[in-house]
Structures are given as C-alpha cells and as structure tokens.
Amino acid sequence: MKANNSNFEALPVAALSDITTGGAMAVIINTTGEGSIFKALQNLYCHSHFKVYYIEPGVNQLRKTLELCSSIGLRSIVLTGSELPKIATFAPESEYSATLISAGSDFPENNILDYILSDEKATSFSHVGYQIYKYHPGILSSLREKFFEEMRLGSLRGNIGNCEPLMRNSTHFYLDMRSVRIADFPDNSEQSPNGLYAEELCQFSRYIGMGQRFKTMFLFGYAPKSKFKSPSMQLTAEVLWHLFEAMAASISEDPGITVPEEMFNKKIVSMGQDGQELVFISSSTTGRWWMVVPDVKNDKSQYIACSYSDYLTAYSGEIPLRWLFFYQKINPV
After folding, report:
1. What is the per-residue DSSP string for 153-171?
2. Is 202 helix (H, G, I), strand (E, B) or coil?
3. Cβ(30)–Cβ(79) under 8 Å?
4. Looking at the chain, which residues constitute the CATH 3.40.800.10 domain(s)?
5. Is pLDDT of 244 > 70?
6. 0.90 exceeded by the pTM?
7. Distance CA 39, CA 31 (A)
8. Nearest to 326, CA basis, from 307, 303, 308
9. Element housing 281 (H / E)
10. Consecutive H or E run containing 201
11. Rounded to 5 degrees, what angle do the CA atoms 94, 88, 221 make?
12. Torsion 231-11-249-2 (CA) sign
C-alpha cells in the first residue's frame, strides 16, 4: 500500500499567484532545483488533514514569492540546499523574532547569526542546540548582552521540552541540518561526530510547527542531490513531516489576550514570608506554561513562555533563572 500523497500538491510557480489558500496551510519553496525531497515526502503517511503546496522558484524569485505567500496567508518553508542564499534575498523588512538551530557560530557563507545580531528589526532571538566549543566567545557574549536567549546542546539533552519556550513566539526559523551528528545525517558536510540526534531535530521541528507566530522556516545544510531513499533525504523529509503534522494540530492560545478562563490554570507560588509571589499559568489543553513577569515602569505584567521545570524550580523555593532573565530584560537598570 502506498502512502497517501494527497496532502502535498506540486504547483507551477506562476499558479501560486492565481490562487487563494484553497484550504492549504503552507507552501514548500524549493530553491535548489532538485526534486528528491518531494518524492521523499510522498513516501510518508500523513495522519492529519492538511494541504501543503510545493513550488520550485529560482533564488532570484525568493523575496517576491515570500511576499506573495504572506499576502495570501500561507506560511513558508524554504529549502535552500547546502547554504543559505544571500541574506538580502530573504531578510524580513519589518520587525520579527527568530530562532536559529545550528551547531555553532561560524557559517561558510551568508552568516545569518551575524546578521541577526546586528539587525535592529530583530526584536527577540534564540539560538538552540549549539555546541559550546564551536561558538566564538565574543559572539556568544554579544548575544547575551542583547538579552537574546540561547540553549546549548548539553542543556537540552535529557529534557528537550525545556527549549520549547525559547521557540514558541518566533516568527522566523533557520534550521541547519549540519547541527545533526554525522551518524544520523551522513550528508553532514561538517563531518561532526557530535550533535543533535535525528529524533531531537524532529522534535524541534514539531515545536516550530506548534509555534504561536510561525511564519517562515529556512531549512539548509543538506545535499539536495541525494537520492530520495538516502538516510539524509529521508531525515529531511521526516523533519518536514513533523512540522506539518504539528501545524495541523496546533492550537493558538495566549493568556495575555482575551480568552476563555477555563482554558488556563493559575498557580501562585510564594517565595518566602517577605518574598513576592510568582504567578504561573498553564494551559489545560496543550500543557504549555507561562510565567507572569512585572513591567515595573509601565505598571503592568507580561506573560512569558516558560516550562514546567520553571514552575517546579519556584515551587522548591528558588526563583527560576528564566524569570530573573526576563525581569532584568523588561526592567533594565
């Protein structure tokens, strides 16, 4: 029995401008000129009802294509092959929040990390899954000085769910397949013996698909000419499969806006006799957590994505580091 291929529909590039969403939730924009990934996707069984379009524009059409997708309400997944194209061809022109999944701070071409760190339009940023010995200390220091977030590979291993809050509200994602160890991704040009496990990358992709504000993902660092049955191409397709299944099941919820109170549970933790109370909110539907951080200057509070581990830390009598991080960010001295 063949897999159900009805979830994915290949279109000529010109046809995209002549349609509305047509019930589709996303479009795969393959700029590599190689179509093995589409064939690999068609060999996977989809268990949710969704429609994803697939097009193959040239790199010089990328910005126009992204703008078109945005105008008709389609989220974009851009496949760029071994390297990202020139950043000028896709950089957002309005404010955005971003997440980068990569092994370190160095990129052979078009360093997206350097760009984001210097871009005033980047309102928030997180770098997830990196290996500390592949990260330039000066760049890591700059990231922290800007109150951007980061979580290295060793910190997420064993409890990968702790990285989900860092990704929850990002609009743009940059996923480097070379962050996966070579044993799980043989086409890794970095030949790295250490890195993310294949299962961890698929879990990351699931978190991206569940994201509250997800607009665009760039997937790069793989060999687009690989045969569709190769381990590397199969993993690339499985990453996309997890993304789309999560998108189809995603629930939009935010305790900071007007929503039914029955969707959330409030937990108040007292930090000692003279200490303040920390407020946590959990979703009764998805299990997501938020913490309430006061904005002293504006006399209001902000709802910050957090994890169950942050609540347990507060419950044990310690102020979570994530709460302190955002308190200092929101209330600079």
Report:
1. HHHHTT-GGGGHHHHTT-S
2. helix
3. yes
4. 8-249
5. yes
6. yes
7. 16
8. 303
9. strand 277-283
10. helix 198-210
11. 105
12. negative
